[in-house]
Amino acid sequence: MAQPKLSRIAGLAAVSALFKCRPESAERLFFDERMKAEAEPWCKSMAAARKPYRQVPTEELTKVAGTPLHGGIVVVAQPRPPQAFEAVKSFNWAKAQEPIVVLDGIGNPHNLGAIARTMAFFGLSKLLLSDHPEQALPSDAAYRVSEGGLEHLDVMVAHNLPKALERLKPHYQVVATALGAHLPMERIFANTGKPIALVLGNEEQGVPASTLAVCDEIVTIPGSGWVQSLNVAATTAILVHQLAARRG
Questions:
Q1: Do both 70 and 167 map to the same domain?
Q2: Is residue 104 domain-shared with residue 60, that is, in the same domain?
Q3: Of 77, 106, 121, which closes a domain?
Q4: How do beta strands 100-104 and 7-10 pair?
Q5: First-residue to last-residue Cα distance in the chain
Q6: Do residues 73 and 89 both lie within one domain?
Q7: Distance CA 150, CA 144 (A)
Q8: Could you tell me if 172 and 55 lie in one domain?
Q9: DSSP codes of every residue in 151-187
Q10: Cβ atoms within 10 A of the Cβ of 4, count?
């Protein structure tokens, strides 16, 4: 069986989160002169585990990271693949009033990373991804942009998202986002005591029709009309803030 491809996690915040949450997954550590002091405790951790670490020129670090946007430090680590969605667990999530953010076809890994960063900032941990062919999964770019946020999330994949959402509905209000004259989130809060599973769709086409058909409600963020819509990561930030505030 082929070994899973190692992840290249770059940037001080992302590397720090990895060593905090799953230090055993780190296989190699590289850093340049500017990160020497910050890397010292992790070098000791790597030495104790008898794993390689070293300071390298910035040009070499760029090659290791596969991008110049590495912030001076990169850890090569065992991947943390998404888990399969298990609807049976949703009863306990709902009991704890934990919202779920659901992404159906969000293809840009930078948007995935930005959404993960927002969720972690506001303390939401449940992220459900569809098996849409364009859906981005956790990757080097997503980890870098998430600034460590992905390390704090329970990332799951549903194989047949509409069916998965149907199984959530006994415990969750399933709410999609879309353009048009739909309800604001505040009205949804007033109409339900259930926690919310918030569904966001592809950057170009929005939530697929098959997914939209099983949602309980559709919400829209009202705007000035000067531009058609927000970036999906910005939409998520606004609505996740509202979900977090409601949860308290």
A1: no
A2: no
A3: 77
A4: unpaired
A5: 46
A6: no
A7: 9
A8: no
A9: GGSEEEEESSHHHHHHHHTTT-EEEEE-SSS-B-HHH
A10: 9
Supply the range of the domain harboring residue 132: 83-247
Q: For residue range 23-32, list pLDDT tens digits in order.
A: 999 999 999 9
How is residue 178 written in tokens?
Answer: 């879309």
Q: 200 with 157, same domain?
A: yes
Scan for tokens 């599973």, then name that residue.
197
Token readout for 138 is 């956790």
Whole-angstrom distance, CA of residue 175 vs CA of residue 239:
11
Interval 169-220: pLDDT, tens: 999 999 999 887 677 777 777 667 789 999 999 878 889 999 999 999 999 8
| Residues 72, 125 share a domain | no
Mark out the alpha helices in the chain (DSSP H runs): 12-21, 36-48, 58-65, 90-95, 109-122, 140-146, 161-168, 185-191, 209-212, 232-247
> Pairing between strand 73-77 and 26-31?
antiparallel
Q: Could you give the CA distance from residue 42 to residue 53 in angstroms, rounded to a whole number?
A: 9
Cβ–Cβ under 8 Å, residues 77 and 6: yes
Which pTM value belongs to this model?
A: 0.93
